[in-house]
Amino acid sequence: xxxxGALVDDRGETITVVAAADGNIASKVPxxxxxxxxxxxxNDANDWVLLPKGSKGQRISGFSVPAHExxxxxxxxxxxxxxxxxxxxxxxxxxxxxxxxxxxxDTIGWILETQTELGVDIAGxxxx
Length: 128
Hints:
Elements: E1 15-19, E2 35-41, E3 48-51, E4 59-64, E5 68-72, E6 79-80, E7 83-84, E8 91-93, E9 97-103, E10 110-116
């Protein structure tokens, strides 16, 4: 990866989102996304990026410039790293973090793996 902003998917597209506390369209990761760049937050590090439902085997990679939260849609019952993350429990993503999501199935949901901008693994992030 040449630079955090250089992520591209197989169609040559990078989806840029802005973390927000209202679930607006600018903070939603579309289900077609393969690579995501979180460029900023609206208020503070408690703002979130909203993940799509996911489909079996789907992968999304990304880079987050600011610290922010990551959650799933309200009442979706979709998990991130084993925790239902659809409004009150969110995964806290540190600033300058490379992340990868893998949707296993509707029971397990998303598995989130993270690394620093230097490629050092970050211990498992559990939504709280």
